Amino acid sequence: MWVGTPIIFSGLALGSFYALMALGFSLILSVARVFNLAHGEMILLSGYLAFVLWQFFQAPFFWLLPICSLALLALTLPLHYLLRRLPEPYGLNSLMVTLGLALLLQSLLLAWFSADYRLMRLDWPAVAIPGLDFSFLSFQGLLIILALAVTAGVHLVLQRTFLGKALRATIQDREAAQVAGINVNQMGLVAFGLGGLLIGLAGPLFAQNMYLYPAAGTEATMIAIVVTIFAGLGRTRNILLGGWLLGLTQSVAVFTMGSKWRELVSAALLLLLLYFRPEGLSLKKER
Amino acid sequence: MAAQGPQVCLEVRQIKKYFGDQTVLRDVSFSLPAGEILGLIGPNGAGKSTLFNIISGWQKADAGSVFFFGQEITSWTPKDLSRAGLARTFQVPQIFPEMSAWENVLMGAWLPPQSRPSFSKAQEEADHWLSLVGLLELRHTPARDLPLAQQRLVELAQVLATRPRLLLLDEIAAGFSLGAVKRLAAGLAKLRDQGLTLLLTDHLFNLLEEVADRVLALDRGEIIVQGPPAALIHHPDVVSAYLGTRCGAADNGEA
Predict the structure, then answer these.
(1) CA B12 from chain center: how many Å?
(2) Are B175 and B149 in contact (CB under 8 A)?
(3) For A127-139, how does the pLDDT look when each residue is reduced to its tens digit (9 = 90+)?
(4) Would you call A183 an interface residue with chain B, using a CB distance cutoff of 8 Å?
(5) Domain count of chain A?
(6) Would the pLDDT of A201 be above 60?
(7) Residue ranges of domains in chain B, CATH in brackets
(8) Which one of B89, B110, B125, B154 makes the best mutation probe of the A interface by having the most chain A beta carbons within 10 Å?
(9) Which of A172, A178, A181 sits opposite B98 (nearest CB)?
(10) Between A and B, how many residue pairs show a Cβ–Cβ distance under 8 A?
(11) Considering only Cβ atoms within 10 Å of each terminal Cβ, which end of chain B, N or C, has fewer?
């Protein structure tokens, strides 16, 4: 077997996980114009919830996904109402509030769970590809399938449904959306709802894929930002590509330089993207 | 509201607007009966767009009030006005650049939940309005790829899909060929016959001449004269407002 095959495969699996983490961030940013700095901490919260349910209640993994999704939905909806009450400049104020929320969640997680590293240790069977001298963990396959399915689902909702088209209209031009009679606040609520489900979904995957510790949210937020900048606002399919690019780059960096370089890769990519794609996060009609 | 005579669709009372110490609108008042097409002309800076913005909720008046079918709407938001049936277009069309022409029109049918059509009904309506403005064959073209004149028509079809009772069109025919102006005028007249009330601005008069029942001429924030379009086009006050007094006297017939 070519030495690159497992590197590419694990990069794709990791990148799929990153795309799943970034989808909710991107939706909330592009529709509701909230740069949610607490994104990573919210994923962590969902991850810890999954960990507790698994550790103390022996909840099966596939139940954790819907339970955590709904739990985070119950958090993001009130958050939307809180943020809606902020005065202008809305972008800056919501940024500060979510930064505060991130610090609050970090402190709470530290108080509840201490700074210990935790991981959900599940035994995922290995899958061997017949004919090829190559096998992978079924969890990695699950990540790839889940990312493909969720991205396709979000993409279809945005492209094919009436509600999805109204969401896209809001992403493209809030003023024009209001001229057309679209209630952009309601669209923001829908984005927070969908975003909450996606953030909740990412939690158990995080707990299974990476170590849970209260400060781990920062990296998750940064990954979501990098992938979103790469993709451009409202471009669901590009999020999957962005996640894969980041996952593959990290996978190659870890293989060639060692695992301590992994986090540095996303930071370096963020700087590179901001240099070469400064319009990455800009909105079409910022006034 | 009196039962006799046509209902008053829009009533503008004593609107004042200042930008700093500049008076943009001074005590502008007029009323627009339902089912009429009213034109608003005036040279650049006369206050047409400001008046439009105030009526449609995009700017606040410093004094005065606006009534829509007897209800005061002076401080309503654009979204609420759109939902109440007062729709407008812009000189620079407010469209969704990356959505197709058809999807743009479809968004007009995203009405409040109680009156929102089903998705399939909305699609039929979008086809209907798009064919009315003559763009059905361009339905899949992204709006950003259309020329400006066609983007304006997409916006027109979109606001028609909001099922307005009053439609404000801001220089919709700018840059249109003569044939296109005539087609648009025929379409607007048909909509008026179906009960729509229209308020149009026109910089060059060519659309209003075709379709308006009555025209108001605005100059430096005041209504200087009003009447049927044929009478206004050669009116000395209108000509001098556009061309300046000296020039207006010399080129009376050319305005």
Answers:
(1) 15
(2) yes
(3) 887 777 778 888 8
(4) yes
(5) 1
(6) yes
(7) 8-85+164-249 (3.40.50.300), 96-162 (no CATH)
(8) B110
(9) A172
(10) 68
(11) N
